[in-house]
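job 3f2a | input accepted
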Amino acid sequence: MSRVGSFTRRRWSWTGVVAAIFIVYTVYSFAHVGVALYQTRLQLRDYQEQKAALIAEGDRLREQIEELNNDSYIERVAREELGLVKPGEKVIIPAVPGQVRPYIPPQPGQQFRD
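job 3f2a | predicted structure (114 res):
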């Protein structure tokens, strides 16, 4: 007898079905854990980038605080923006042709001190 044209059927046993289900579940579980691990690594990278940006911002703000606490900066702001003068100094306002800039003296009690 020749089996060339005949169709043979194979029956699955319960152990084969259980083993196949176990293999599919195991592969799915590993794939699921792998995807979760990949997403966690992406989040970690994003958090590390945010941390680096915040550290840089903190350094920039510390430098700005040092500059703002510098005596020469405080003196410049007091003179230029507040119009304060040291005791005994005279204010000289440069004249600009066609423009009148009135001198507004500082309020009483607003004196520049060293």
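job 3f2a | DSSP finds two helices and no strands in the chain.
job 3f2a | closed
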